[in-house]
Each structure stands twice: as C-alpha cells, then as structure tokens.
Design brief:
The protein has 173 residues and is mainly beta. The chain has one domain: Immunoglobulin-like, CATH 2.60.40. Helices cover 8% and strands 43% of the residues. It has one helix and eleven strands. It has one helix at 6-18, and strands at 37-44, 57-59, 63-69, 73-82, 88-90, 94-97, 103-106, 112-117, 121-129, 132-143, 146-153. Strands 1, 2, 4, 5, 7 and 8 form a six-stranded antiparallel beta sheet that branches. Strands 3-11-10-9-6 form a five-stranded antiparallel beta sheet, with no helix packed on it. A hairpin with a 5-residue loop joins β4 (73-82) and β5.
Amino acid sequence: MGAKRWWCWFIVLGLFLALPLGSAWGKSPDSGVTITALQVELKVQSITKENFYMGEVWVSPAKFTDIQNGKHYVGYARAIGLDVFRVEYDLSPTWYSSDPTMVRVAPRAGHRVKLTVVKEGESFVMVTAGAFSKRLDIKSTLRGGAMYVEISQGLSDPKPAGAARPKPGRTTR
C-alpha cells in the first residue's frame, strides 16, 4: 500500500519547497538593514476586457499610461524601499504635488497613496523617503469624455539635496 503511493510524497515535498520561508513584503527595515533604493510602483486597474479579478498588479515602468472615462483620473501609487538583495521593505515617505489644483495626493505621508488628476496639464509629484527621492512627471489631456494620463518616473537620488557631487569627467582632489 505504501509503495503504490510513493508519488504522494513527491507532491508533498514539492509543495513544502514551493512555500516561501517568510514574506519580505511588509517588513519594516531593522537597524541592520540598509535601504539602497526607492522604488515607486503604480497600480494597473484594468487588465482584461472581461474585468476578471486577478489580484492587484503593481508595475514600475519608466513611462506609465492609462485612460479613464470621465473628467477625472484616479490612480494608486506606492513606494517601497529595496536593500542590496532587492528585498522589499515598508517605508513611510512623504508625497508632494507641485500643483495641488491639478494632482491631489492623499494621504501626504505613507507608503500607499491615491493620486487624483482633476484637470488637464502638466505637473509632478515628488516622493521623498530619507535620503532618497523620486519625481513622477504627470501629463494629462481630456479627449472625448476620457482622461488620458502619462506618468514618467525620474531616477532615484541616493544623496541628500545638499551633498556635493563631482562633475562628470573631472576628478576631485
């Protein structure tokens, strides 16, 4: 009887090995962890035409485009810290909109925010967590009763704003 069900042990072993040993998402950085990058991700809201629920999908492209019917666009963004091994950690960054009459950010601090674009134009949102910052350039147009939005991400800046940097091609002594 045991010899006939040897394959069950392989399935159980495979399931055990496939389980994660601990989820990295949701961890707060310990005192020994050094965050090396700030990553901003945007939520994909419509994946299929049939709108099957497939869980939340978050992406971090250089340029994100989306469209919503109506005069406003509502999207979601989150910021996470990455260590040397690309393990994700919760941060509590601050979010600043350069033009609050065009782009509203709620809440102003926290790792996940709601971005509401209320009119056409160009603006940016600055995300800052410690020594890191990232700029999200937002362009929106209203055409045919729908809001078209393009969000471009700038590079993360690992040095504080006041830190001196050598110019490219020159050596400092």
